[in-house]
Amino acid sequence: MPPNFDPHAMTPNEIGLVKRSFAPIASDSRQIGFRFYRRLFELDPRLEGLFRTAPRDQGGALFSMIDLIVRTLDYQEQLVPIIYDLGRRHAAYGVTTEDYDTFRTALLDTLGEALGPEFTPEVRDAWAAAYNFMAQVMEEAQEHVKAGRTLPYRRASSPIQEEADQ
């Protein structure tokens, strides 16, 4: 487990809000993903250079991962290895720590557009909590990559992970 990881980063109410608000838009994920990347590149055109696939295809992949995370938010601790690996890969793509803030803004803006009036302040805060949970783990993975500790993710009780964390 990453040292700073809070296994209860999201409350049951926040998890429920994220799940209920995602359900009506899940079937339009490819289009919403395209809108996300359009917004991301508006916020920071430099980020477009990090992607080798078309935004529409990348949007589908993004929302497939978001769908997986949303469906399994009740098991945050078990999600950590998946998100950690995602963070390692994003570090290899050239994503910086600062890019996570831009991504967060683009995600929340896109969800707000997609959900319209259903994107209440409470729903927005729940999505922000979900993103913060994910970003915390991904940024930790990125720090490990920077420090040359690129071993696969292991539970904290694993001697390999404990050695890598020293």
Describe the structure.
This protein has 166 residues and is mainly α. It has one domain: Orthogonal Bundle (Globin-like). The chain has 7 helices and no strands. Helix 2 (29-43) crosses helix 5. It is globular, with a radius of gyration of 16 Å. Mean pLDDT is 82; it is low at 154-166.
How many strands, which pairing sense, and closed or not: the largest β-sheet? none
Query: What sort of overall outline do the alpha carbons produce when their principal axes are compared?
Result: globular
What is the CATH superfamily?
Globins
Name given to the CATH architecture: Orthogonal Bundle
The CATH C-level class name: Mainly Alpha
Average pLDDT works out at 82
**H/I helix tally:** 7
Relative strand content: under 5%
Counted up, domains total 1
User: How many runs of DSSP E, i.e. beta strands?
Assistant: 0
Low-confidence stretches: 154-166
> Portion of residues in helices?
55-70%
Indicate the CATH topology.
Answer: Globin-like
Q: What class do helices, strands and sheet pairing give? A: mainly alpha
Sketch the topology as an H/E string, one letter per element.
HHHHHHH
Terminal-residue CA separation: 14 Å
Radius of gyration: 16 Å
